Amino acid sequence: MTQTLTTPGRLKIYKASPELYDAMMTLSAAAAKDLDPELGELIKIRASQLNHCAFCLDMHTRDARKHGVAEQKLDVLAAWAEAGELFSERERAALAITEAITELGHGGVSDDVYAQAAAVFSDRELGQVISMAVTINAWNRINAAVRTPPPRR
After folding, report:
1. Which residues pair with 152 in a beta bridge?
2. How many domains, in total, are found in the chain?
3. How far does Cα 124 stand from its chain's mean position?
4. 134 Cβ neighbours under 8 A, 6+ residues apart
5. pTM over 0.90
6. Which residue, among 57, 71, 63, 58, has the nearest Cα to 152 in the 3D structure?
7. CB neighbours of residue 150 within 10 Å
8. Where do the Carboxymuconolactone decarboxylase-like domain residues begin and end (predicted)?
9. What is the pLDDT of residues 3-44, one digit of tens each?
10. Cα angle vertex 23, ends 17, 24, to 5°?
């Protein structure tokens, strides 16, 4: 049975602002449209690792397994750049641009990172990858602000 915990003293934001939740779900659906679900989950997990969002990590690692992401990829995702050929060229490009978007204070999205992604994705795909990274960062920041913990299972 799944039980959602709350952090005492923190706003139950989705209850207080249900239109925020609805808008975020609409944004999530738009970002996921036509994006490979496995790639989408890798993007969401990597950004959530960088943002220390336990709620999103719990959710998206479970979702990744349901979509067939290999356990080994999930095991080493935090060190994807050092994992050699375990990740495809497209996955590496998506993860690099996700990290750059997530850590904008470290110089933003460099021309090299952008060019690497643009070389392996169509314009539509690149737009979806960027949108997925932006969307999960928004979810991470909302959940971190109100300290949404992962559910107990």
Report:
1. 3
2. 1
3. 18
4. 31, 101
5. yes
6. 58
7. 18
8. 18-99
9. 445 677 789 998 999 999 999 999 999 999 999 999 999 999
10. 95
> How far is it, in rounded angstroms, from Cα 95 to Cα 22?
27
Amino acid identity of residue 76, one-letter, is: V
CA of residue 94 relative to chain centroid, distance: 11
Specify if 83 maps to a domain.
Answer: yes
**Domain assignment of residue 43, yes or no:** yes
Q: Which of 143, 136, 146, 100 is nearest to 28 (CA)?
A: 136
Structure tokens at 100: 């750059």
**Residues contacting residue 151 through CB under 8 Å, at least 6 positions apart:** 2, 3, 4, 5, 58
* Token pair 């971190």 in the structure block, residue: 144
CATH number of 105's domain:
1.20.1290.10
Reported as a pLDDT band with limits 50, 70 and 90, residue 136 is very high
Contact indicator for 101, 44 with CB cutoff of 8 Å:
no
Residue 2 lies in a domain: no
Q: Both tokens of residue 127?
A: 């737009």
Contact 101, 46 (CB under 8 A): no
- 38 class by beta-carbon count within 10 Å (0-12 exposed, 13-18 middle, 19+ buried): middle
